[in-house]
Amino acid sequence: GSRFMASGAGHAPTPEEEGFSKATIVERRRITPTTVFLGLEITDPGFSFKPGNWVDFVIPSLQTVGGYSINSLPRELPKLSLAVKESTHPPAAWVCQESEVGHVVDIKSGGTWQWEDGMDADADLLLLIAGGIGISPLISIARAAAEASSRPKRVSLMYSSRTEAELAFRNEIESLEGLGVVTSLFCTGEVAAGAAQERISVTHVEDLAKATGADLEKTVVYLCGPPEMIDTLVDGLLALGNSL
Length: 244
Description:
Elements: E1 3-8, E2 21-32, E3 35-42, E4 54-58, E5 65-69, E6 79-85, H1 90-97, E7 104-110, E8 125-131, H2 135-147, E9 155-161, H3 170-178, E10 182-187, E11 195-196, H4 202-212, E12 219-225, H5 227-239
Parallel strand pairs: 1-12, 8-9, 8-12, 9-10, 10-11
Antiparallel strand pairs: 2-3, 2-7, 3-6, 4-5, 4-7
Pfam families: NAD_binding_1
Region (Disordered): 1-23
InterPro entries: FAD-bd_FR_type (IPR017927), FNR_nucleotide-bd (IPR039261), Oxidoreductase_NAD-binding (IPR052128), OxRdtase_FAD/NAD-bd (IPR001433), Riboflavin_synthase-like_b-brl (IPR017938)
């Protein structure tokens, strides 16, 4: 009954020549001091994705390919949204410093992570644990699971960042609570309203199970965040009865 999936918050895609779709930037705003939200519109009716997927992201003037998780839902196509964390990697630097509404890029969806209606329907708890920009694919999965007609008995999201300003998607997270998702925020570096000032630990998972009556042996966990966070949590989560 239980499954466990962990992923780093980024990936290194390999450029491919076929299967890309044109996307126009129709919205661009900074959602945290180091993260830019991009709203794209895709003209290709054949473009599709599943919640949890990323896109390979090609800027015409750059040779390097970016890889960013999708945080919107398939039903929202032809609109699609991404959150890009600032870095020296050329595509991320372009998004955060140079991109403008009206710019056209090439994208292609993919990835080993995907969630769709009916998955984990026999799970007692679908637990999504996000650190930093790792919230991006998990906000999509959380929304999809909350809206699914055949869904796990319980859905919960735990999300941590270093500072309060870096907690992205606060409005979306509040909306999830209205759909019955149990959400918990953690802020590791400072005191923040509505967030615990500590790192997410296995103890928090055990406390959640006790509070909600969830069976940890029938729990499916998706974990996405910085490598050190994943390393810290994986062994403890496996020991609770989650199998890879």
